Amino acid sequence: MPEDVSMTRVRLDADLCEGHALCIQLAPEVFDLSDDEVASAAQADGQWDQGTWDNVKSAVDACPRQAISLLNISTKGL
Ligand code: SF4
């Protein structure tokens, strides 16, 4: 789980995604598959519980294309 989930967003690179849906199996509450078989990710906005973040982390680790990443959107330094 990211250290500060309130400042974390899930990024999914549609150009890398091959639509195998592993992420959707692991975190169906977050990931979805479009009609053209490219995954997308819902955004948390700090509302997800620990279990959901654990599922997201599992999806990040499981994605064979490394298409999913977690971004810290902290505004520090801006
Ligand atoms: S696991 Fe990765 S490649 Fe597979 S659908 Fe999800 S984002 Fe796309």
TrEMBL record:
<keyword id="KW-0003">3Fe-4S</keyword>
<keyword id="KW-0408">Iron</keyword>
<dbReference type="Pfam" id="PF13459">
    <property type="entry name" value="Fer4_15"/>
</dbReference>
<keyword id="KW-0479">Metal-binding</keyword>
<dbReference type="InterPro" id="IPR001080">
    <property type="entry name" value="3Fe4S_ferredoxin"/>
</dbReference>
<keyword id="KW-0411">Iron-sulfur</keyword>
<keyword id="KW-0813">Transport</keyword>
<keyword id="KW-0249">Electron transport</keyword>
<protein>
    <recommendedName>
        <fullName>Ferredoxin</fullName>
    </recommendedName>
</protein>
<dbReference type="InterPro" id="IPR051269">
    <property type="entry name" value="Fe-S_cluster_ET"/>
</dbReference>
<comment type="function">
    <text>Ferredoxins are iron-sulfur proteins that transfer electrons in a wide variety of metabolic reactions.</text>
</comment>
